[in-house]
Amino acid sequence: MDKHNLDGDEAVRSTNDDASHCKRFAVQLGYWTDPYLPLLVRSTERKTPEINRGYFARVIGITNIIEKFIKAMEGNCQIVNFGAGFDTLYWKLLDAGLSVKKFVEIDFANVTSRKCHYIRNNDKLIRGLHSDDEEIRYSTSELHSGVYHLAAADLRKLSEVESKLAECSMEYNVPTLFLFECVLVYMPIQFSHALLQLIADKFSTTFCINYEQVNMTDRFGDVMLSNLRSRGCSLAGVEACASLKSQEDRFILNGWDGARALEMNQVYHSLISPVEIQRIEKIEFLDEKELLDQLFHHYCICVAWKDSLDLKLNLLTID
């Protein structure tokens, strides 16, 4: 791999730290509760109210859909979080009494090695991994317990992904939710298409949540792309982010039964309770609502499903 690609990979990896610091600051202000994030992310920096509300909508919107899936499956399901970074979803679901058969996180090795280190050195995080019949296995960049698995792979290399899923003892006939948060957009389109096709081929019943940019062909989208390029971070898969339809189409083209995408302004007002919105809007004064509307217009959640067991997964879409 040439130096340009290596530099680009490093810039993509750094987005984990950026997102983690944003979430940490929003949690610190009280947008949502996460007692585990400060154990993985020690430092924070001030963010604008628009950024904080954006992350609130992202975290709460995605969490609501995941909880709906687990309840519908009555816990007989698996979750795979691709490009998970320092996400704490596993521990938060445990606290909510929502257990699953298997929870797998996959990311670059230099991200998983740091997360592995933090988990190993914190009793509160380790407690959630213990099961009665299996010991926790560690390596420099991986951690495997009975339910939770943290594995290292390059998502552009399907052989690595397949190998890691096998090592985590995934059951291909069990309903499985796949989560992507600003992951596919950093991969050239042929790689993201191949990964989505692999999932559709190997898993008989699957549900996907993808959060990333949308409506990127206008002036605001151009500015977003320019800002990212100035940090050495190009959106290699941005062509799938042209519209809600292009977001949906890439799933249909790669073996999925159906898909539905909603801009984040729709998610904010339809998937989050009015009481919660009222509460968080009192945390910080928003000087310019137009900027938040623009941000919400340029991010979306797309859900997709492949429902061989006829579990009515299409009914779990965003209302």
TrEMBL record:
<dbReference type="GO" id="GO:0005829">
    <property type="term" value="C:cytosol"/>
</dbReference>
<dbReference type="GO" id="GO:0018423">
    <property type="term" value="F:protein C-terminal leucine carboxyl O-methyltransferase activity"/>
</dbReference>
<dbReference type="GO" id="GO:0009966">
    <property type="term" value="P:regulation of signal transduction"/>
</dbReference>
<dbReference type="InterPro" id="IPR007213">
    <property type="entry name" value="Ppm1/Ppm2/Tcmp"/>
</dbReference>
<feature type="binding site">
    <location>
        <position position="83"/>
    </location>
    <ligand>
        <name>S-adenosyl-L-methionine</name>
    </ligand>
</feature>
<dbReference type="InterPro" id="IPR016651">
    <property type="entry name" value="LCMT1"/>
</dbReference>
<keyword id="KW-0949">S-adenosyl-L-methionine</keyword>
<protein>
    <recommendedName>
        <fullName>Leucine carboxyl methyltransferase 1</fullName>
        <ecNumber>2.1.1.233</ecNumber>
    </recommendedName>
</protein>
<feature type="binding site">
    <location>
        <position position="58"/>
    </location>
    <ligand>
        <name>S-adenosyl-L-methionine</name>
    </ligand>
</feature>
<comment type="function">
    <text>Methylates the carboxyl group of the C-terminal leucine residue of protein phosphatase 2A catalytic subunits to form alpha-leucine ester residues.</text>
</comment>
<keyword id="KW-0808">Transferase</keyword>
<dbReference type="InterPro" id="IPR029063">
    <property type="entry name" value="SAM-dependent_MTases_sf"/>
</dbReference>
<comment type="similarity">
    <text>Belongs to the methyltransferase superfamily. LCMT family.</text>
</comment>
<feature type="binding site">
    <location>
        <position position="181"/>
    </location>
    <ligand>
        <name>S-adenosyl-L-methionine</name>
    </ligand>
</feature>
<dbReference type="Pfam" id="PF04072">
    <property type="entry name" value="LCM"/>
</dbReference>
<keyword id="KW-0489">Methyltransferase</keyword>
<dbReference type="GO" id="GO:0032259">
    <property type="term" value="P:methylation"/>
</dbReference>
<feature type="binding site">
    <location>
        <begin position="154"/>
        <end position="155"/>
    </location>
    <ligand>
        <name>S-adenosyl-L-methionine</name>
    </ligand>
</feature>
